[in-house]
Amino acid sequence: MRIASLLSLAYTLAVVADAAPKPNTTRNELNNGRIVGGIEADRHEFKFLVHFRLGDNCCAGSIIREDWVVTAAQCGQWAYNSTITAGDHNLDEVEGTEQTRQVAGFLIHPDFESGLANQNDIALLYVSPPFEFNEYVQPVVIPDINFAPTAVATVAGWGSLSEGGPSASNLMKVDVPMVDEEESNVEFVKIQILRSSDTGGPLVCGDNQTLCGIVSWNRGCGRPNLPGVYTKVSQFSQWIRSNMIPVYEDPSPVESITTCGGHINATSAEISFQLGSSIRADQRCVWIITAPYSYLRFRLTSSGLSENDGLFLTQFFLNRPGDQERM
Q: Domain named Peptidase S1: which ranges (predicted)?
């Protein structure tokens, strides 16, 4: 059996007469995090904290299970195949406590809206192999839906120490007061505080370090009366728990498609449509595949394709075309 990564993706499998160009994807600039006015955290004070790089951008997250990490959707949507590290304190030194894993799959909240407000800015990352819990690496506490945040919370990360300044080498933390939504003029906020750190990183409440927020965005860097915006984790606790339930591949196809085109939404399926003389030279057959896994396996038994025909797999994310591969 194989554990699924619950990948929130759609694929199209298309047969066309001529090759199509490979589409380009553009990565939007992430909200660079900052942690201003803080102090250095104790070593391994935040055992659940992880970090990863996406090009020139830094992201963070929190371990919620050996094989799952929660982060911001604006980070998660680009995190596939990236390297993620837990058990770190000084980013410039190899301390022997680090665990490095690969992001093998991701799930973006279906209602995530990119933009100024970044509504529903939350994602899950599936890592492989799983982290090994020890005295340096542990999971964070996920709040219940009725969780009441403390008046003061703590942010941790390796963000910039000043606006426009360099990022910290050592893990930093800062205590910040909470701001009610009614006291802010910013729309679509979940939780707001006065500072921020790495995008996707944790805002924790209480002595047991309950994950009450996820770094989303901010205006400036520690500016007065401009609170940072955090995703309120308690509103997504049920979504987090339900999507960590493993889904297993069916040993035999549970759907069979016999037409030129169709929609597949299953853990396994077969397409029984003979190509060749049954379709015109300029005709396309497009099958949309909603994949619950981080990857797809195909086995082509026969096709009827000529050397001038093509079988293409195109990956879509948030209704935008991504990588395309000729099978």
A: 35-245
